[in-house]
């Protein structure tokens, strides 16, 4: 699950696709070098010294300092500029509404200024007929500009990617740390008193070691040393063979996918590589959201210089085949992806035509952003025409 992260300095254009997949694989790209974490699984959750409560939830939850025994808390860190944080909001609403009567409380914390968050809350949430404020009113939304809570949790646990959530169990101990989109299973297990904290602690230790190795891969790919990067990936896959738990199996699957992304990023358009991606594309066609994610990753890599060959046209075709049946929430993004992939191939007429459809499918502030992107495509087309005339 993607998180907001800082792009690696010196990342060359051809390595962007690899970097994107690393982010999805380890769920924690852009971390600083790890030191000695002072907050981990099984430790007592620090008290919350939050400066501002912007929204306390529909039930009128009060402010929280210490954690009440017998209740469960999700302490989540986010920011207005973080796309994955925004995408996680509906899921946090779903979890809060589902477990509201079972002593579960979601508390989201941003270290931005109050005015910045309040400005976002007044805007329309993309694809929904409600504002950010109306959507997130289900749970507790807070602001802590001095960053003290982030220091107690994020820095202490060596967690630098957001969104990031800490599951505080019935006895006030940290039970789980991870992406809020992955909360469902641990939250349900903690509620049912079935959570194996020690097993998860060991699993997280292995994951940290894996992340350190993947940082090395990221550095190698960023400097164009694809062969060396692939050797590290091969070694990681060999080590994972002896681990047969759900998380290791998922990492193994994602790491295998990364191998092929890295090969494509290096310019490998062999039959084997193209067959792998065509299989992914065909599987994604059954779910518009999966197709959108696949297309987004491809588009982002193309914008950084990766040449996916015929896969670009095939992805556009798949999007065109599926867009008419897509939900209103997803349809504008699918048209945007069609436009951007075409633009990456300098097919600006096709890009402009698709972007106009994206505008028609959009509402509110989203339509304004879509119009701005159309203007950019038109400027790029005009620039291309001028260059051709100059020749």
UniProtKB/TrEMBL annotation:
Subcellular location per the Swiss-Prot or TrEMBL entry: Cell envelope
Predominant cellular place of this UniProt entry's protein: other
Signal peptide residue numbers: 1-18
Domain of life: Bacteria
This protein's UniProt keywords: Cytochrome c-type biogenesis, Disulfide bond, Redox-active center, Signal
Record domain Thioredoxin: where: 39-205
Protein name: AhpC/TSA family protein
Organism: Neorhodopirellula lusitana
């Amino acid at each position: 699950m993607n998180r907001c992260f800082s792009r690696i300095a010196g990342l060359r254009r051809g390595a962007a696709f690899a970097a994107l997949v690393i982010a999805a694989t380890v769920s924690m790209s852009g971390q600083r070098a790890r030191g000695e974490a002072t907050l981990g699984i099984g430790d007592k959750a620090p008290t919350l010294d939050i400066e501002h409560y912007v929204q306390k939830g529909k039930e009128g939850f009060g402010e929280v300092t210490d954690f009440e025994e017998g209740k469960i808390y999700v302490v989540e860190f986010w920011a207005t500029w973080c796309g994955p944080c925004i995408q996680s909001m509906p899921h946090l609403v779903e979890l809060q509404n589902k477990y509201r009567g079972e002593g579960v409380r979601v508390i989201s914390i941003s270290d931005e200024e109050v005015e910045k968050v309040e400005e976002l809350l007044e805007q329309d949430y993309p694809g929904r007929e409600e504002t950010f404020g109306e959507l997130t009113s289900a749970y507790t939304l807070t602001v802590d500009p001095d960053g003290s809570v982030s220091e107690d949790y994020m820095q202490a646990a060596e967690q630098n990617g957001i969104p990031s959530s800490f599951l505080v169990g019935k006895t006030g101990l940290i039970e789980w740390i991870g992406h809020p989109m992955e909360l469902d299973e641990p939250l349900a297990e903690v509620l049912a008193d079935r959570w194996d904290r020690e097993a998860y602690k060991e699993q997280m230790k292995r994951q940290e070691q894996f992340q350190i190795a993947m940082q090395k891969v990221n550095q190698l790919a960023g400097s164009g040393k694809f062969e060396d990067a692939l050797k590290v990936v091969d070694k990681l896959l060999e080590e994972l063979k002896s681990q047969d738990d759900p998380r290791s199996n998922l990492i193994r699957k994602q790491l295998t996918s990364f191998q092929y992304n890295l090969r494509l990023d290096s310019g490998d358009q062999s039959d084997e590589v193209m067959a792998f991606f065509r299989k992914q594309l065909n599987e994604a066609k059954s779910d518009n959201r999966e197709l959108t994610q696949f297309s987004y990753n491809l588009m982002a890599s193309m914008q950084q210089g990766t040449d996916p060959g015929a896969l670009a046209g095939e992805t556009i075709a798949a999007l065109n085949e599926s867009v008419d049946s897509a939900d209103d929430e997803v349809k504008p993004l699918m048209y945007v992806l069609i436009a951007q992939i075409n633009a990456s191939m300098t097919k600006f007429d096709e890009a402009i035509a698709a972007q106009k459809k994206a505008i028609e499918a959009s509402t509110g502030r989203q339509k304004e952003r879509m119009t701005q992107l159309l203007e950019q495509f038109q400027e790029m087309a005009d620039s291309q025409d001028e260059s051709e005339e100059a020749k």
